[in-house]
Amino acid sequence: MLAVQHAASAPDPLSVPSNAPEHCPGTESELAGKADACAGCANQEICASGVTRGPDPALPLVRERMSTVKRKILVLSGKGGVGKSTFTAQLGWAFAADEDTQTGIMDVDICGPSIPTILGLATEQVHSSSSGWSPVYVQDNLGVMSVGFMLPSSKDAVMWRGPKKNGLISQFLKDVDWGALDYLIVDTPPGTSDEHLSIVTYLRDSGIDGAVVITTPQEVALQDVRREIDFCRKVGIKVLGLVENMSGFVCPKCKGESQIFKPSTGGGRRLAQDMNVSFLGSVPLDPRIGKSADYGVSFLDEYPDSPATTAYLEIIDKIKQQLDVL
Amino acid sequence: MTEVADTPVGRRLQHVKHIIIVCSGKGGVGKSSVSTQLALSLRGSSPNARVGILDIDLTGPSIPRMLGLDGHPVHQSSDGWVPVHADGSEARLVCMSVGFLLKKKEDSVVWRGPKKNAMIRQFLSDVRWGELDYLVIDTPPGTSDEHLSLIEHMAPVHSRLSAVIVTTPQAVALLDAMKCLSFTRAVNLPLLGLIENMSGYVCPCCGEVSNVFSTGGGEEMARREGIKFLGSLPVDTELVTLLDAAEPSPLSDGVTSGVNGDTNSASTFALWQRYQQTPTASLFSKMAEEIVRTLARDEGSATTPSE
Ligand SMILES: Nc1ncnc2c1ncn2[C@@H]1O[C@H](COP(=O)(O)OP(=O)(O)OP(=O)(O)O)[C@@H](O)[C@H]1O
Ligand SMILES: [Mg+2]
Predict the structure, then answer these.
(1) Of the candidates A82, A160, A259, which has its C-beta nearest B28's C-beta?
(2) pLDDT mean by block of 10 residues, chain A; 326 residues
(3) What is the pLDDT of residue B301?
(4) Which UniProt keywords apply (chain B) (predicted)?
């Protein structure tokens, strides 16, 4: 049971540099730079000097950049393919429906960025100016940044290890010229790993308003949600609520409803209760949502009268209400 | 080419005939369910086949649940970790996952790359698999630390590595499947083929087939890229329930749900029996047969599998 012992004695995950050796004591630890594990680590000298017990030099730059962003929201899921990016896009579109609201979407899913496709920006490239990288705009008040805009070809695999991913995330946070934003929505890859730790490390100072967690109804997905909520608690992020996606399918022919991903253990609602987070609602499985995403158009605009649109809008309202009282 | 480098990983893996890595660019497309079904089907492919399944999705392990082994402890012996037996005393389907090492089911594993790398190395060198005909490896989505570590540790010491790519038919998934294919090419990992999962759904009320996640995209990608198309699997709600390790339906009366692997005796490997009643099982067994044939042929001709 070695792994358990390691996990239990692990330092605060946020203080382990991305290129640290496996038994890194954590840069803020008294042992930083002096433990056995530190021998040979690229950071050893810096750690031993005590500088690292102070903050990361990128932090003030991130804080500066984020000072003009009112609300920062993470969209998380434990499991893959549950509809995070699709939800992120709908949330962005819904916020941006108000002309006086400025919204940014940041896609930190580095290996599988789907935000450009979903927002219809698949062929766009990023431009840089003296004030930093400019986001790509879907419309005047909806800007987007994704690693997808920086790749020479969408076919290429992004085979990056943690440290490289973290470098890019810190650049996204300090170098993207968002301007003044009402909302910054961050779409993340599934799981709880480098990307998540980096985002939290860099944004903790500037304040993350909360996370929306997406799941599908079956137990295999819910067990990953429990882990994700546990992660949020460990690093001190407020969970705004849980959204259950793909909750039942309405046959376009007979209008009969069936459960594809059967909630065999009570689904999202029950899990939200058990883990004491708020349940924001369920979105039915509608094949037109996937089609809209493939074509890069807003489902909310295309099918304003569908039950899924109603569900999305109710959920988004609840998120807004929660953010307003903060 | 067959002499094995003398590393802990090499020593352990020299007793494994074929290693099959199941990957996908995108998450949630069915890697873990395909891994589970592949392991079950390979085990069923001959009366003596021994199959291992290694879950390297460290932050979202699904295999314990899917095999009905949630909460099962892993024992440490003087010769390393003893994998968990999914089929009880028969021990022809043995499994290792980080899920077995967690104390509580909601415990999150928040590890950065280097730590994940160390865990994967330990899985490859310290698990007492014994002699295996096949080792199926379930991976997390993407092409990052876990995948690179896997290749880094195995490629120098094992000559029979190959991959299966899983995708769903919609464009956003195919885009990522393409990246995954580029990955296998970049690291020279031979590809057994592409599986299109969740292709079409039969409405239980009226029988109408709906393309919930679209359809046909995988086959088209395989043709375009000149890779083997292993077939498509429909959306199967019975499979979801089975892999959720939910209570058995009244259909399969008298068979235990297999929550504790050790209670499964040789003749009533409950999960296998229940699996065979799902609509997907017969479709999948054809894919597994094809994979077995390809691997056997390549073994015969003593070359690595080709695309
Ligand atoms: N053909 C199918 N029909 C219906 N449901 C399926 C099918 N294949 C897989 N599923 C279900 O879809 C969900 C996702 O599958 P699975 O967990 O295997 O995906 P994954 O690619 O391993 O996901 P992750 O990226 O999170 O590891 C599971 O609940 C599984 O039971
Ligand atoms: Mg999986």
Answers:
(1) A82
(2) 33 61 68 74 70 74 95 96 96 96 96 94 90 94 95 87 91 95 97 93 93 98 96 96 96 91 96 97 95 96 96 97 85
(3) 66
(4) Hydrolase
CATH 1.25.40.10 fits A58-324, yes or no: no
Q: What is the mean pLDDT of residues B58-82?
A: 94
Please report, for chain A, the start and end positions of each structural domain, with discontinuous segments joined by +. 2-53, 58-324
> Is domain B12-250+264-301 classified as CATH 3.40.50.300?
yes
Nearest by CB to residue A79, choosing from B27, B142, B182, is B27
Residue A27 near residue A15, CB atoms below 8 Å: yes
Distance from C-alpha of B150 to C-alpha of B154, rounded to nearest angstrom:
6
- Cβ separation A261–B240 shorter than 8 A: yes
Query: A25-68: per-residue pLDDT in tens?
Result: 666 666 777 777 777 777 777 667 665 656 678 899 999 999 99
Cα–Cα distance, B93 to B84 (Å, whole number): 8
Residue B31 Cβ inside 6 Å of ligand 1? The answer reads yes
Question: Contact, A158 vs A111, CB < 8 A?
Answer: yes
Residues 6+ apart with CB under 8 A from A285: A245, A246, A247, A248, A249, A260, A261, B212
Helix axes A219-235, A267-275, angle to 10 degrees: 30
Q: Where are the domains of chain B?
A: 12-250+264-301
For ligand 1, whether the C-beta of B60 sits within 6 Å is yes
Contacts of B210 in chain A (CB under 8 A): 249, 251-253, 287
C-alpha B109/C-alpha B99 separation (Å) is 10
